[in-house]
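User: Just a sanity check before I run the rest of the batch. Below are the structure tokens for the first item. I only need the designed sequence back.
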């Protein structure tokens, strides 16, 4: 199951689990759309593709809440 990290690791913008606009690599590094675009859709950590992260909504989000630990170190 995806961790659903709450923020962009590059700029720190909020990325709610129940909304689109987040991009992840296979290691779940998480970036906003603007940063993913600036990175040419490549993860700076592993070099893998950055792809759209699916949203988690409703009862599923309640049963499996998103992570709360922020990853941005700015």
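Assistant: Here's the designed sequence for the first item:
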């Amino acid at each position: 199951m995806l961790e659903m990290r709450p923020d962009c690791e590059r700029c720190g913008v909020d990325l709610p689990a129940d909304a689109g606009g987040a991009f992840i690599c296979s290691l779940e590094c998480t970036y906003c759309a603007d940063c993913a675009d600036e990175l040419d859709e490549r993860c700076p950590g592993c070099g893998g593709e950055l792809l759209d992260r699916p949203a988690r909504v409703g009862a599923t989000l309640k049963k499996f809440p998103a992570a709360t630990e922020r990853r941005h170190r700015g």
